[in-house]
Specification:
- The chain has 152 residues and is an alpha+beta fold.
- It has one domain: Gcn5-related N-acetyltransferase (GNAT) (Aminopeptidase).
- It contains five helices and five strands, in the order E-H-H-H-E-E-E-H-E-H.
- Strands 1-2-3-4-5 form a five-stranded mixed β-sheet, sandwiched between helices.
- Helix 1 crosses helix 3 (34-49).
- The longest helix has 16 residues, at 34-49.
- The radius of gyration is 16 Å and the shape is globular.
- Bound molecules: coenzyme A (COA).
- The site of coenzyme A has 19 residues, from strand 4, helix 4 and helix 5.
């Protein structure tokens, strides 16, 4: 694992935007122009993707190839205690289903433990079954449900 460099943003930005786009509820995505949405959302997450709200860590393979990355930081809303937050995780398509994702989540949990956190949290789309499987198999459990109802 190594810290992300400026040059890694060329990979991180499109991958993160694609992940969020894919996880948008179908009815919301249907009414959106991709470019308009990207312009809007880039501004919202800039501090997390390249600013000081998070740390970005890259997983490299033996030949220096990028296997994936995690974006990690803190969050706290319901209680005064902050917890670690896994803002994003991504594995290069050619390296999926080989255990890299689980290794990255474990690494993120250690990162959080070393910083004194008692808990690590994350958010995942209901329809992202592979990611949910990864998290649940490593002990993450749903705590609150984010609900929506399209109004006609
Ligand atoms: C989610 C992601 C990080 C997982 O990384 P990965 O390297 O493929 O994960 P692993 O190989 O460690 O584990 C994959 C697990 O999912 C399972 N899996 C694969 N496809 C699945 C599916 N459609 N539904 C449920 N489980 C699935 C695999 O069998 C494996 O589980 P097992 O080890 O218990 O058999 C990766 O797929 C990814 O980058 N996806 C796009 C970005 C994304 O969605 N990020 C999460 C945002 S919340």
């Amino acid at each position: 694992m190594r810290r992300a460099r400026r040059a890694d943003l060329a990979l991180i930005w499109p991958a993160t935007l694609q992940t969020v786009w894919d996880d948008l509820p179908e009815d919301e995505r249907a009414g959106l122009d991709r470019r308009t949405w990207e312009n809007h959302f880039r501004k919202k997450i800039e501090a997390f993707v390249e600013g000081n709200r998070t740390e970005r860590w890259i997983a490299e393979g033996p030949s220096g190839e990028t296997l994936g990355y995690v974006i990690l930081g803190e969050s706290g809303f319901l209680t005064p205690e902050t917890h670690a937050f896994l803002y994003d995780i991504w594995v290069a398509p050619d390296h999926r289903d080989k255990g890299v994702g689980k290794a990255l989540v474990d690494w993120a949990s250690n990162w959080a433990r070393e910083r004194g956190h008692r808990k690590i949290k994350l958010e995942v789309g209901e329809g992202n079954e592979r990611a949910r499987h990864v998290y649940e198999s490593l002990g993450f459990r749903a705590e609150r449900r984010y609900m929506g109802k399209p109004l006609k």
